[in-house]
Amino acid sequence: MDGELKQLQADLRRFAEERDWGQFHSPKNLAASLSIEAAEVLEHFQWLTDAQSRALDDAQRKQVGHEIADVLLYLLQLADRLEIDPM
């Protein structure tokens, strides 16, 4: 898995470089984006009971999955920018 994460970080770095996004990807901005995306995960559960949160339907699980992916990608970019090995 470690090698896969490093490859994903390299892919993310290349993707951002191709679009000249590096100027916006300071650690502060990446941390803010990570926090915003984590809040978007929480938004899906905001008014659910504990039981409801354990019984998401397929559409809800898919939406939460997209937000979780966003959190993971920003976290990997932040670790990469700070040269921190997340493993």
Structure description:
This protein has 87 residues and is mainly alpha-helical. The protein is 71% helix and 0% strand.
Structural class: mainly alpha
Backbone shape: elongated
Measured as a percent range, the helix fraction is over 70%
Q: Quick one: how many beta strands?
A: 0
The overall pLDDT average reads: 95
Reported for the largest beta sheet, the result is: none
Order of H and E elements: HHHH
Low-confidence stretches: none
* Through-space gap between termini: 9 Å
A few lines on this structure:
By secondary structure, the protein is mainly α. Helices cover 71% and strands 0% of the residues. The mean pLDDT is 95.
Features:
single chain; 87 residues; mainly alpha; 4 helices
Can you lay out the helices and strands and say which pair or pack?
Layout: H1 2-18, H2 27-43, H3 50-53, H4 58-81
